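Weekly modeling sync, notes
Attendees: AB, CL, MP (scribe)

Item 1: holo prediction request
CL wants a bound-state model with iron/sulfur cluster before deciding which constructs to order. AB pointed out that an apo prediction alone won't tell us much about the pocket. Agreed to run with the ligand included and paste results into these notes for async review.

Input as submitted:
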Amino acid sequence: MAIELIDKDKCTGCRTCVDACPMDVIRFDEDEQKAVITYPKECICCYNCEQDCPENAIYVDPKRVNPIPPAW
Ligand code: SF4
Ligand code: SF4
């Protein structure tokens, strides 16, 4: 696991992180209109979500890196 947090108070529901994640880690909660961490164990620590979030609402912990799966 590498992604640690999506701050709901900062999240504006822009969905950028949902589109930016190459894995199935972040999904969009239609009821709350916020991004939510769904499958954190699939996170490969690529930092796309943290870098692309315009509200700085996401924290990815660099100390907890899963091995990047081999290319297929
Ligand atoms: S990119 Fe940031 S503000 Fe946009 S949905 Fe994701 S967490 Fe929320
Ligand atoms: S660091 Fe990469 S793999 Fe992990 S949640 Fe963010 S975009 Fe997805």
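Recorded for review: The pocket of iron/sulfur cluster (ligand 1) is lined by residues 6, 11-17, 35, 53, 55, 57-58 (CB under 6 Å).
Action items: CL to compare against the apo run; MP to circulate these notes.
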